[in-house]
Amino acid sequence: MSTPADACARLVEALRRLLARYAGGPVELVETHISRILLTPAEAYKLKKPLRLPFADFSTPAARRHFCEEELRLNRRFAPALYLDVLPVCGSVEAPRLSGDGEAIDWVLRMRRFPAGSEFDALARSGALAALDVDRFAHRLARFQAEAPLAAPDSAWGTPVQVAQTIAGVFDALAPLLDDAQAVRLRRLRAWVDARQPALAALWSARHAAGWVREGHGDLHLANVVRWGGEVTAFDCIEFSPDLRWIDTLADAAFFAMDLRAHGRAGLAWRFLDTYLTDTGDYGGLAVLRPYEIYRALVREMAGRMRDAQGAPPAARPDYLACAEALAAPPQPRLLITHGLSGSGKSTVAAALLQAAGAVRLRSDVERKRLFGLPALADSGAQGIDIYTPEATRRTFERLREGARTALEAGYMVIVDAAFLRRRERDAFQALARERGVPFSILHCHAGVPQLRERVQHRRAAGGDPSEADLRVLARQQETAEPLASD
């Protein structure tokens, strides 16, 4: 007796033959745990499998049409040029037609095809994923989230109960797919999450109230980000469940960062987070970031094993269970501050170190501007705003100290990127490290005066950097700097 799954498989093969005639050549088939995609040289045709799962119901043609249309609508927020239309499949399973007269027996989403290997997971595996790709995507995600609709104050999305249920659902769904030894590892991870639930519940509630729950992507792993048409863009967001799409903004960022780690690109993961946090200023959310990353790693492990259970051809993939375990055992936090005149290389050193060692960075140039509602690259002087008064400096260092405290409490290594030319500024952060019981270090950066002057002038002329230091600022620093001492 033929099942809906059998009929779907026959329909896909018939459509494959039909599209091959149109295209004049072979049509590739790509399969996920919930969809099949037929690839012609120029286009992609995506059909949803007739499944009823705990998180999605595609069991009827009407449901598949609805979710194809939702997929088109929602993904045009990210990649309007990539998503074309939804087409009815008419005729019969054995002799289908795309569009035309007659009752639709199924529905397909039609997209433009991008070159094979341009997805970020493929670029990461080949070593072709560049730091610029990650920076551009971090900026794009931050902009998208800033403009995304906020969940209503009385919405259940992103509340402690809803988030806890979603995470518990992944543990429950994954457990039967593991062998005994893996199941023991999963139980340890669940205990790690459960032990933090009371504190997380308070954080999730506060973030919901503060407007951090928005309509996002929901499935932001590397295979769903592509370098295409001179841009980097997300695609293939969650269309089948508002619960999985209306989420904390950091839950989307965590997915992308986690998958960089899982693909062996931890340095790029930290670079992504640095750029993303610089844009969003969401350092207050760091305490939920690691739990979100662990949850996202388990989502990917679950998706891969569900695909295996459906009999899909074996595919190499990262060990997401091991990735989750590594995230649950981070190194000891520590606090580092930079020290040096403008142009001495502090930000360059901090950027390299945060990628190599894995750290959160706070930049005085950025946070000073944020206090005045200015973007990182804005020219405060051109807008007639003096952001370098003694009071502004005091408030900037207070903001840096509170941000560092938040990151340390969340268990992260922290680099505070500022000149720290006055002893009282350095002492305040050394006291913070002592209070938190973490190691404290000063990264001293030095260059000769001619090189300092050259770097400062070049940076001001080139633009594209948050620092507004010029030669007058450099001269004033040289006159007033208080040197480091042994204590």
From TrEMBL:
Family annotation (InterPro entries): Cell-binding_unc_protein, Kinase-like_dom_sf, P-loop_NTPase
Where does the record place the region Disordered?
A: 460-487
Give the matching Gene3D superfamilies: P-loop containing nucleotide triphosphate hydrolases (3.40.50.300)
Which positions, given as ranges, span the membrane?
Answer: none
> Pfam families annotated for this entry?
AAA_33 (PF13671)
- What is the designated name of this protein? AAA family ATPase
Which organism is the protein's source?
A: Paenacidovorax monticola
